[in-house]
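Methods — Computational structure assignment.
A single polypeptide chain was analysed. Its primary sequence is given first, followed by the predicted tertiary structure written as structure tokens.
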Amino acid sequence: MKLKAIIEIPKGNDRRWHLNYDKSAIEDFGLIKERIPVNDGVMPVAYGYLEDTENEAEKDNVDILVFSSKDFKIGEGVEVVPFGYIIRDDGDHKVFAVDGTMDYKSWSDIPKEEADLILKYFGYNHKIISIENADSAEEYITNTII
């Protein structure tokens, strides 16, 4: 399953960029560390959303973590292949995917230090319930397409 992701926060960025609610522009909502002090608020992976999807719990696009060797710009589109997702207790689940520059096929392929940081970062405000595989991610995404 190939999908189009839009990058809101490039890896290494410390600002909370987000598509505004009328979906007309990506806006700066301030320093990430004000909400997530883990890693001093620096995004550990490229973060964005999947086009034409809606997470029912937050009435917003489905969030995606893009593993890549590329440096993305805010608002850049990229074709990705999902390989799993994180289920959180608040319903704001995070799909993880690769863009073709990385060879990850499951969560266990991510180096331990990087995986641990991602779990601490995205689990800071809300408990992570489970980490699901590619088939489960595809089913979740299919159910969110609008």
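Note: The first helix runs from residue 112 to 122.
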